[in-house]
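name: query_chain
kind: protein
chains: 1
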Amino acid sequence: MAYNNVIQMNSERFPKLLNEIDTFIFDADGVLWLGEEAMPGSPQFINFILRHNKRVIVLTNNATKSRSVYARKLARLGYDIALGKKNIVNPAAVVADTLFRAGLAESNKKVYLIGCQGVKDELDDLGIESFGHGPDSIENQPDKNVFIYDLKLDEHPDNVGAVVVGYEKHFNYIKLMKAANYLQDEDCHFVATNEDETCPGPIPNIIIPDAGPIIAAVKVASGREPLVVGKPNTPAFEYICRRWKINPERTIMIGDRTNTDIKFGKDHGLRTLLVLSGCHSLDDVIDHQQNDRDDMIPEFYAKNLCALLPKRILKSINFFN
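structure:
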């Protein structure tokens, strides 16, 4: 069935698409898992296409953990053990790679980090020193009554080569001030993980702000525009192209968000499939059509990855396990 020119993909149609695709790129949250639970049928689907010798890349905008941690999560949730760190791309890895190629490891300059452990781990792996990660409150200032006029920076601005901003639950006014002041040096790189407004969670109708609002605050306060590396932006695509030889025409991006996953695919010449198991719905697709946002309209849609599995495999899955 075609839904306003967006084709519904199902188990009957999928074999033809499978023959046309060499590389499958998957979003994670809302596609492969939700919270600490695998999406029903998704491990079986990934394992199925791996058995057909397809390349699988997991491209998440979640930078809270390193690729190694995500690899262990995939294994714990029942995904094929062949799917490991080497198959995963997240903004933490792209940020670290971007700054490494900019020469930060050799310059001995440090990174002021507003972000989670995952970004710090990836920076550490490439020999890039960072600081600022974790809680930072007014209590750490010499005189908490006048800190706003006499902020004590952790490092002299000359020693800071970049400010990296992503999701962090400890973000506050102090961190905002420090980031904005370090960024007054035009030679200081400003790199952001992703601009997702919210992230999916296990409790419906509870809004969970993502990195986007934090990055917006630093942008306004500093007067600087960051290099944003996560979907739908080009640095993530270039990172993938440096690591793998992909043919965009034989590559498909599968995700649950039209403004990150689908736009990423459309902007870079990939085929696209929206799964309705996460953030966005067909109503969002209709809204994009009405507003001429072709860059966020997928070629295909499916209820979830499970809906693409052959019926013989579906019959063997115990969804109550």
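note: DSSP finds twelve helices and 15 strands in the chain.
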